[in-house]
Amino acid sequence: MSGSNDQDPIRPSDIAFTPVTPEDSRKADNLPWQQRPASWVALALCVLLALVVIFVLPALIQPPDTPPVPIVSDRTAAPTAESPFRDAQLATARRAAQDVLSKILEKQAFLESKNVELWDREAFDRALAVAATGDTHYRQRAFDQAQDAYQSALNQLTTLETSIPQRVSDALTAGQTALNNGDAEEATRQFEQVQAIASDNAEAARGLSRAEVLDQVTELVTEATIARQNNDLPQARTLYRKALELDADHTPALPDWKPSMPKSWTIGLMRP
User: Fold this and answer.
1) Average pLDDT by stretches of 10, the chain with 272 residues
2) Close Cβ partners of 214 (under 8 Å, ≥ 6 residues apart)
3) What are the residue ranges spanned by the domains of the chain?
4) 3-state secondary structure 202-262
């Protein structure tokens, strides 16, 4: 007979294990991902890893030792001393330099319109080079030196401008001399120079026309002189007339002819 504190011995119970069939595996594969145990395990791992990255990893990484960079305020810079009188002097010098420079530009444009590069390019380039040194001084705020350089350049350009009338006169004279000497090339060069400066110069236009036929006129005059020396006066008169038809101003056409010619012949020779 047993007492109230006696306990029955523990006996193992029979548990029946049901084997997993292929059909059960297929059912598990067809479950949504939310109902799969593996999905919840993976999600729990991701959350745990995120917590480690956010809270644990920053504590393990020490920032580099970087010395602090002092910030200097612009307000601490020493104030620039004002110089009103000096500023006024610079402004006056700047305006004076600009006034001279504007005159240079006017002279430059005028001379270029007169094709200065054809009749005195060297002097023109020298003047512009001096003006360029003035630009250098101007950029350096040396306005007095800039004005001096500009004024020198202006003087040189003015000299070129004032020389134009004399250049035209000299070129016309040289062109006429070349015509009288039978030098058509030199005559053309001189008269073209005049036209480059003054395109409406009538004397230069006439000189160019004469230079174009100069070789023909010279040949006719030579043949006429030979005919006269051979006493072939009708042939000489015909040749001289042809020469004068080409160039009525060709004075060598009758060097010693008119005084010795009969009056009627002279009139016939000069008649168109």
Assistant:
1) 52 54 58 64 75 69 62 52 79 93 96 94 96 95 94 97 96 94 94 94 94 91 89 89 86 53 45 44
2) 179, 182, 184, 187, 247
3) 94-162, 165-208, 215-270
4) HHHHHHHHHHHCHHHHHHHHHHHHHHHHCCCHHHHHHHHHHHHHHCCCCHHHCCCHHHHCC
So what's the pLDDT on residue 170?
Answer: 96
d(CA 83, CA 4): 119
Instruction: State the DSSP H helix or E strand holding residue 89, giving kind and residue range, or none if neither.
Output: helix 84-113
- If one counts every other C-beta atom within 10 angstroms of the C-beta of residue 228, the result is 19
Global pTM value: 0.57
Show the tokens assigned to 264: 């009627």
CA–CA distance, 128 with 211 (Å, rounded to integer): 36
- Output the pLDDT for position 265: 44
Place of tokens 């005084």: 259
Cα–Cα distance measured from residue 230 to residue 26, given in angstroms and rounded to the nearest whole number: 141
Cβ contacts of residue 176 below 8 Å, gap of 6+? Answer: 187, 207
Structure tokens at 256: 């010693």
Handedness of CA 31, 32, 35, 39 (dihedral sign): positive
Q: How many CA atoms lie within 13 A of 231 on its CB side?
A: 0
Q: How far apart are CA 155 and CA 208, in angstroms?
A: 34
